[in-house]
Amino acid sequence: MSRSEKATAIAELTEKFRSSNAAVLTEYRGLTVKQLTELRTTLRGHATYAVVKNTLTELAARDAGVDAFEGQLAGPSAIAFIEGDPVTVAKSLRDFAKANPLLVIKGGVLEGKALSAAEITKLADLESREVLLAKLAGAMNASLSKAVYLFAAPLSKAARTVDALRAKVEANDVAAGGDAE
After folding, report:
1. Are residues 32 and 76 in the same domain?
2. What is the DSSP string of 84-108?
3. Are 19 and 92 found together in one domain?
4. Which pTM was predicted?
5. pLDDT tens column, 159-180
């Protein structure tokens, strides 16, 4: 690889680090091309899975201000550059690693913060953004319903009290009118 090719590769990786929401470093030793293709298909739309050269990646990460991978770039490495929902990608990687134990999740970076493999697993255990938003909307709707009930309760109680008094007055009038005859 010539110097200009290396410089181009470093620039491309630096740009990927800067434009991604997150990145997850993996070791893929022993996986077949078919398995890697399957993983790329699984991640499509949310992340780009790229096999990388360790030295060039280390230089690109340093240029992008990412220090999460220091000391972890050894062996056959690949990085999932996440453009979409990090939780979805973390789940996909975790599930793929369960089915294919040769894929090892080494660590990652999320919004500039370094993540260990265990933290990526915790991220994968979270519910997706859409599910969390739906739960939030449901909780807010329930709170609003409770508020409406609480505000309406005194009015309906007052209406029931007035109706009860009206009925009592009518009953007294009927009783009083019945005695007069």
Report:
1. yes
2. S-HHHHHHHHHHHHHH-TT-EEEEE
3. yes
4. 0.65
5. 788 888 888 888 888 877 755 4
